[in-house]
Structure formats: structure tokens, C-alpha cells
Amino acid sequence: MDTPMPNAPVQAYAPASIGNVSLGFDLLGAALKPVDGSRLGDEVKIHPAGAFSLEVKGTFAHKLPADSEENILTQCYRHYHNQAEQQGHQLEPCAMLLYKNLPIGSGLGSSASSVVAALDGLNTFYGELFDQQRMLLMMGELEGQISGSVHYDNVAPCYLGGLVLMAEQADNIAINLPVFEDWYWVACYSGIKVSTAEARRILPQQVALKDTLTFGRQLGVFVHALHSGDRKLAAAMMQDVIAEPYRKKLLPGFDEARAFAIQQGALAFGISGSGPTVFAVCDDLARAEKINQWLSAHYIQNADGFSHICQLDPQGSTAKKV
To answer: How many CB atoms within 10 Å of residue 292?
Structure first.
């Protein structure tokens, strides 16, 4: 039986992400990178140890279960080891340290960030036993334990970077799309918590034929506009006819925030994932700054809230030996 030796300590980072991107419910996702150089995402450090252990630090560490057995990183560790054993590898244990920098239930892919940082870090630590597609499958399975169903619109952009369309084929789970590098994405977290599972429960089980046709048309035209470089057409398609009409009632101040952003010239405005984070897309930094200031003053509900001007993160997660 092959027993690979653990590598040197590893440090991994996985960025926040926007799920759905308004028009692509469960099918589109985008990775975020603040323009001020700050990090918006979870970090995981891994080093050799005689037995597995998990420590949690960071701004939102107190929001996680005190029992490490209930932490998704413990499940990531066990799942990775189980998959490795099935391929004939007997792995040595390691110690993991999670810096929980993203708020829980924020609509920024918080659980996906933890899962991706953990699994990407473990794969680097143990010598990259699994390829990209197998890693994505594992990430989707584990993130689904928290959100209530397997979907890749957060884990895929978080891992791969950029703007991603879900194909969900065994050999091609997600496809990176062209992006407009001069677009700014203002992401504002209000500070309240919205459970992904709860936000899915309020959606109707059936969608009207008219809305289904609109959804398909918008997604198809949006992808075409990205490939043809048509910014105006792409932005015009960024409307949510599936989830936003129901979910916005969970978000205090959403309609006012949208009205202000559009009035100030935002190309699009919507809910990030299940919310409460909202995002505004701008093609001008000055507009983005004005919208960012307004959202910071009017949409944020408590001290946990924050707002960042971002661009899309082309790299996604990183894991390196230290």
C-alpha cells in the first residue's frame, strides 16, 4: 500500500463568491477580490501532527460550533482521507487551523470558502492525489452537507476563480466564462444571517412557463454577450426572475438599495446567493465608490456588516507550502 509522506506545512486561501449572479440560479458563480488588496475569504493552515486536530480563529470563529466534530473541516479531513484510502493511500494525520473570516449565512459562499480552502490545502499537503474534477466533486458533496443540497455555484468559482458556468458533467463540472475586467462589483453584507436552506424553502416548487423562458433566454444571451464582448447586452440580462422576487422580502432595505444603485448608474444590482449580501455592477470606479458609501451607510444593519468594492478574482483558491 502506497504511503505518501506529508509535505511541508501548507497555507490555503479561498475567496468569497457570488452565487447565481442574478440571472443564473444555481448555474453561475463569481469569485471576488477587493480592489484595496484586502482578503475576503477563509484561510486554512495545515501542518504535520501525530493526531488530527482542528483549531478555529478569526473574526467569525465564535459563530461556528464549539465542538470540532461538528465543524465542516473535520468532515473535509475525514472525507479526503477516506477517498485516499480507496485509492490505496494510507495518509498520516495533520493539524488544521481555520481562520474564519467570512460571516455565516452571508450570501458570500462562506461554507464553500471553508470547504475549498480545506480540501485544496489538504490536496497540496498530501501531494495532489486528486485532479481538479475529483476535487470539485468532493467540494460540492461537502458544501452540500451545510446548504442542504449539492450545487457548485459557490465552490466552483471559489476554487477555479473568475466567472463560472455549471455544466455538472462528471468530467466537466464547471466552465470558466470570459469576463469584463473593467467591471467593478460592490458587495455589501448587511450583517444579518440568512440560512441558505431557509432561503431555498421559501421558493416555489414550480416556476411559471413565462419565467422559465425568460430564465433560459437571459442565460443564453448573457453567455453569448460575454463571448462577443457586448457589455451592454450582458448587463441587460442580469435580472433574477426565479429567486429574487421571493428572497428580497428577507432583506431589509433591498428595494431602496437597488433604486439608489440603479439611479447612480449601476449596470446591474442583485442578491448574492441567498443574501443578505447584495451586489452592484459598475463600469466606473467613481460610481462604485459612491454606491459603496451609500450601502455602507444605509444597507448595513449592525457591526458585523461590511462593504467592499471588488473585481472578479481570476485565480480562485491558492494553496502553497510554507
So the answer is: 22
The answer on whether 105 is annotated among ligand-binding residues is yes
Task: Tell me if 109 is assigned to a ligand binding site.
Answer: yes
Length of the chain: 322
Fold of domain 10-177: Ribosomal Protein S5; domain 2 (3.30.230)
Residue 272 in marked binding region: no
Where along the chain do its domains lie?
Answer: 10-177, 184-312
**275 annotated to a ligand binding site:** no
Nearby residues of 274 by Cβ (< 8 Å), 6 or more positions away: 19, 105, 107, 194, 195, 196, 198, 199, 200, 247
Q: Is 113 marked within a binding site?
A: yes
Round to whole Å and give the CA distance between 195 and 299. Answer: 19
Flag whether the pTM goes above 0.70. Answer: yes
108 belongs to an annotated ligand binding site: yes
CATH of 184-312, one of 3.30.70.890, 3.40.1000.70, 3.40.640.10, 1.10.3720.10: 3.30.70.890
pLDDT tens digits along 63-78: 888 888 889 999 999 9
